[in-house]
């Protein structure tokens, strides 16, 4: 079991910078999820930790040891690939035992570990099968089994669920969460799916353009996104963004005008001055249907999506901004009609012209 | 049954080609068992009670050197084959997997080897072999055939190796498998269909070659079977029975090797590796 720490890690392919100044501390036993759009460098970062890519700068430490120069096999890691990467000409048992054979593990010990992993993953009846005779979910479990038998300090997962169908994905997600509880090992997991990130992680690392945008517990990111990117990335459907302007500033209270309403909000000292352009963010699920007061948004309905337990109302405000509201399942809203949604003041987010959150820390 | 006309046309084409390809072989086989008179009187007829004879085979076996020629051919072919496949696969793996300076240059150099026939260099090859004291040795033949077969082998095997998902090698590296082990335990088994293809493509020209045995190893009991057959072809008299019998015998080993490899020519071994 081990901590993982990255200090100033940078990576470039030729002139293209993939990763810039990555600093991150992963504590022993944590489940860390790297999440971000494709091309943000999250997979490259994982491969760097695995030792499959060299860094252009910075230091990687696993446990107390600098591992920059160590090959993957000596880093006490095990990696599960998106494509599973099972050896096609070996059966399940041999797939799991293959790596151990070269680690000078004696036969009985190899056998014990493989059978134990097979037991955990319910693979025992499949040990003699070849990968091509397995379903996608079973192959995924073999890939995880191959990682378990190595008894690594750190598990690395590279989008392990993206080749599975929706139902299996939920199942396997739960199995991975259970595995983490049972083994207590450090796990680093890469995904582009924010639902996977929210459900699995004890700590989420949101990445964009080769940089870390924010690190935090799932709910912390949801409640206090540090910037527009994180605010837009975490949460589904994504947060509504409405253009606004600072009307007045009195001490730490800035009054923001947006979409025909205004709201006084506690902001960080000296972060805004009157006249500044800002972006106001509000999540669809935090707005409430009806209510007609100073803190309400009014508009015409473009479309309504009914999901049963709730409905999403797409409306256009008089200011021209498009807003999604989560309404109750039995809403009367219909396209073409007018619609009013109450905006609770404490659910508002405000970002300055650079896209950085200016709200004062809230409890 | 619903058969499209296009498919019928394709099959007719293939059947015609098969007849064309098998024709000479069948001709050799049936005539090898006929008397000389019957060979000329009715070349296409099957041997019957009157025309059957094994005189050609008797003469071939009576010739003590024939077994030796056979053995020479087999040695040259098999050793060349093993060397070409082994060195070719290793070179292909190195050229596709590792990026090093000169990588592209070596690849291009090998591509030229495919385009330029090695026979153009016969004179210098002969001169080189004379200086190396390798004339009339099987080593000379093996060296030439390995050089002849390598470029194409590297090209074909390189293509196949590139198709092996990169994740497999990375997974093996994470498993702590050494680069040599990755090559021998993962890459080689996965490209076995390609190796079979290369083996067949390499083996047949080597076995059939007359040119290099003729100039590099024409004597000292180092003749190959193609050269050995020549002794039955005289300037004035040709012993057709013996020629056809020895050709029949010469076909057998390639046929066996081909059947051996053709099992692996079937593709799709990588199914189930990824996704």
Round the mean pLDDT of chain B to the nearest integer and report it.
84
Estimate the helix proportion of chain B, in percent. Answer: over 70%
Tally of DSSP β-strands of chain B: 0
Task: Report the portion of residues of chain A in β strands.
Answer: 25-35%
Total helical elements of chain B? 13
The top level CATH class name of the largest domain in chain A: Alpha Beta
Count of the domains of chain B: 2
* CATH topology term of the largest domain in chain B: MetI-like fold
Indicate the percent of residues in helices of chain A.
10-25%
Largest sheet of chain B: none
Note the gap between the termini of chain B.
35 Å
Unreliable stretches of chain B: 268-275
Let me know the CATH homologous superfamily of the largest domain in chain A. Answer: P-loop containing nucleotide triphosphate hydrolases
Corresponding CATH architecture of the largest domain in chain B? Orthogonal Bundle
CATH H-tier superfamily of the largest domain in chain B = MetI-like
Oligomer status? heterodimer
Beta-strand proportion of chain B: under 5%
Structural commentary:
The complex is a heterodimer of chains A (363) and B (275). Chain A is an alpha+beta fold and 363 residues long. Chain A contains eight helices and 20 strands. In chain A, the strands form four sheets. In chain A, strands 6-7-8-3-9-10 form a six-stranded mixed β-sheet, with helices on both faces. In chain A, strands 13-12-11-14-20 form a five-stranded antiparallel β-sheet. A five-stranded antiparallel β-sheet of chain A has the order 15-19-16-17-18, with no helix packed on it. In chain A, a hairpin with a 4-residue loop joins strand 17 (310-317) and strand 18. Chain A starts with a strand and ends in a 12-residue tail after the last strand. Chain B is an all-alpha fold. Chain B is 73% helix and 0% strand. In chain B, helix 4 (65-97) runs parallel beside helix 7 (138-163), helix 5 (103-115) crosses helix 7 and helix 10 (192-208) packs antiparallel against helix 13 (240-265). The two termini of chain B are 35 Å apart. The interface between A and B is medium-sized, with 34 and 24 residues.
């Amino acid at each position: 079991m081990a901590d993982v720490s990255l200090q100033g890690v940078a990576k470039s392919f030729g002139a293209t910078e993939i990763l810039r100044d990555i600093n991150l501390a992963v504590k022993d036993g944590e489940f860390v999820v790297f999440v971000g759009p494709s091309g943000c460098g999250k997979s490259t970062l994982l491969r760097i930790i695995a030792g499959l890519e060299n860094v252009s700068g910075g230091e990687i430490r696993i446990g107390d040891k600098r591992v920059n120069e160590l090959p993957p096999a000596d880093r006490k890691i095990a990696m599960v690939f998106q494509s599973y990467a099972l050896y096609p000409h070996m059966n399940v048992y041999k797939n799991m035992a293959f790596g151990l054979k070269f680690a000078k593990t004696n036969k009985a010990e190899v056998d014990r570990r493989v059978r134990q992993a097979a037991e955990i993953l319910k693979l025992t009846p499949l040990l003699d099968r070849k990968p091509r005779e397995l379903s996608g979910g079973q192959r995924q479990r073999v890939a995880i089994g191959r990682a378990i038998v190595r008894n690594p300090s750190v598990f690395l997962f590279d989008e392990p669920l993206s080749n599975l169908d929706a139902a299996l994905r939920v199942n396997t997600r739960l199995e991975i969460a259970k595995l983490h509880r049972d083994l207590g090992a450090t796990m680093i997991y890469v995904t582009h799916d924010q639902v996977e990130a929210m459900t699995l992680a004890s700590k989420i690392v949101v990445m964009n353009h080769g940089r870390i945008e924010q690190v935090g517990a799932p709910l912390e990111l949801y409640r206090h996104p540090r910037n527009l990117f994180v605010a837009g990335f975490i949460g589904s459907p994504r947060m509504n963004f409405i253009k606004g302007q600072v009307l007045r500033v009195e001490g730490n209270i800035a009054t923001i005008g947006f979409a025909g309403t205004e709201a006084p909000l506690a902001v960080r000292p000296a972060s805004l001055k009157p006249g500044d352009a800002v972006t106001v963010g509000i999540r669809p699920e935090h707005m409430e249907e009806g209510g007609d007061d100073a803190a309400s948004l009014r508009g015409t309905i473009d479309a309504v999506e009914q999901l049963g337990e709730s409905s999403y109302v797409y409306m256009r405000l008089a200011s021209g901004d498009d807003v999604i509201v989560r309404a109750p399942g039995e809403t009367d809203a219909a396209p073409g009609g007018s619609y009013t949604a109450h905006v609770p003041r404490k659910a508002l987010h405000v970002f300055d012209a650079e896209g950085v959150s200016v709200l004062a820390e809230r409890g | 049954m619903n058969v499209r006309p296009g498919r019928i046309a394709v099959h007719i084409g293939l059947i015609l080609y098969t007849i064309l390809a098998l024709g000479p072989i069948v001709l050799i086989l049936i005539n090898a068992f006929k008397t000389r008179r019957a060979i000329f009187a009715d070349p296409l007829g099957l041997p019957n009670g009157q025309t059957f004879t094994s005189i050609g085979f008797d003469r071939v076996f009576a010739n003590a050197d024939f077994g030796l020629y056979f053995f020479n051919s087999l040695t040259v072919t098999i050793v060349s084959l093993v060397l070409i496949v082994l060195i070719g696969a290793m070179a292909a793996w190195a050229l596709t997997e590792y990026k090093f300076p000169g990588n592209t240059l070596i690849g291009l150099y090998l591509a030229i080897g495919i385009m330029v026939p090695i026979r153009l260099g016969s004179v210098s090859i002969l001169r080189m072999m004379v200086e190396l004291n390798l004339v009339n040795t099987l080593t000379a033949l093996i060296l030439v055939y390995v050089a002849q077969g390598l470029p194409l082998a590297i090209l074909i095997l390189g293509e196949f190796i590139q198709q092996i998902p990169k994740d497999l090698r990375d997974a093996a590296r994470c498993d702590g498998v050494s680069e040599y082990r990755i090559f021998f335990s993962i890459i080689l088994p996965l490209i076995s269909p390609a190796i079979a293809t290369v083996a067949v493509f390499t083996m047949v020209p080597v076995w059939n070659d007359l040119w290099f045995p003729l100039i590099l190893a024409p004597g000292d009991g180092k003749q190959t079977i193609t050269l050995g057959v020549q002794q039955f072809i005289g300037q004035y008299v040709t012993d057709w029975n013996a020629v056809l019998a020895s050709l029949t015998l010469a076909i057998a080993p390639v046929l066996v090797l081909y059947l051996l490899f053709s099992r692996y020519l079937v593709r799709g071994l990588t199914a189930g590796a990824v996704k």
